[in-house]
Amino acid sequence: MAQHPLLMRVVAFSITAANRAGEIIREVLNKGELGIVDKGKDDLQTEADRSAQRCIVASLNRHFPKVKVIGEEGAMDLKIPPEWLTNEADSDFLRNKCPDSLKNITEEDLVIWVDPLDGTSEYTQGFLEHVTVLIGVSVNEKAVGGVIHQPFFKTDSGAIGRTIWGVKGMGIGGIEPTTTPPDGRFVVTTTRSHSNALVQSALDALKPDEVLRVGGAGYKIIQLLEGKAHAYVFASAGCKKWDTCAPEAVLEANGGILTDIMGNHYLYGKNVAFPNKGGVLATAKGVNYQEVLNKIPTQVKETISKKL
Ligand SMILES: Nc1ncnc2c1ncn2[C@@H]1O[C@H](COP(=O)(O)O)[C@@H](O)[C@H]1OP(=O)(O)O
Ligand SMILES: [Mg+2]
Ligand SMILES: [Mg+2]
Ligand SMILES: [Mg+2]
């Protein structure tokens, strides 16, 4: 293990921690005691969010004590049941070769952004496919690695759950085939639970043939990876750094792009503010990102910019 570069070990442990968190999320649902807490407007937290975060953060802290880990649910008790700790890194992932540019980083260069359960609103309403666990790894403020685990995905063989990973300069794994979206149509994916007039006016300007309204930033990125949508467009504040770090890294490792609605990449360093006030604009591999960005009306961009 120690012979692998730090970034490889961090992503490999993030994969096993995300898988363990996915089991916890399924267990909480099966028990049926969701323990819902209202954190604010359209902003819920459940026992699954809390337990999954404790599992992931405690596991990462134990293996990488000097790495800053920031979780959506804030500071939590990290004395967890021993069976929640993940002790093994994902050995399949470790067979990949680390890109040269990421070989010599130190623990101080890293920040790990944890969204223990993305799509909480959908989780409480039974849209279980929309739920993901997101672990994003940033190096010197840039999103470079990520894990998107989908705990309720059913595989062809009848197994449950899948884990998609991506590292910039290496590629992605855990999902196949990575198709490009259909020619001749333009399909946009967006929020189902956080829409507003500005979100809608950006969508209208794009004149899509179809709009898919689904929950979670992670799930919308999966739709781009699977060729189900060309673009993810959300012209509003609401997402935070833990919502976009892993999605950005995975999508860009596959040749897509994720920025705010003005076309700027987010930064993910230790001291950044959590809110992504600039919204989200992401395109799948093979889609002309610049063309989509140009179609977002100036008035939408100006309205969002004024609130930055
Ligand atoms: N207004 C908001 N308040 C809190 N979280 C938000 C808000 N808008 C978006 N999010 C987070 O971003 C994710 C993607 O947004 P959407 O599903 O609306 O497209 C949501 O699942 C939620 O993450 P989470 O479920 O982890 O709290
Ligand atoms: Mg939340
Ligand atoms: Mg989220
Ligand atoms: Mg969450």
From TrEMBL:
Enzyme's top EC category: hydrolase
Quote any Pfam family the record assigns. Answer: Inositol_P
Instruction: Spell out the PROSITE patterns in the cross-references.
Output: IMP_1, IMP_2
| GO molecular function per UniProt | 3'(2'),5'-bisphosphate nucleotidase activity; inositol-1,4-bisphosphate 1-phosphatase activity; metal ion binding
Reported EC number(s) for this entry are 3.1.3.57, 3.1.3.7
Q: Where does Mg(2+) bind?
A: E72, D115, L117, D118, D243
Say which domain of life the source belongs to.
Answer: Eukaryota
* Record-level GO BP terms: phosphatidylinositol phosphate biosynthetic process
* Entry protein name: 3'(2'),5'-bisphosphate nucleotidase 1
Upper lineage = Eukaryota, Metazoa, Ecdysozoa, Arthropoda, Hexapoda
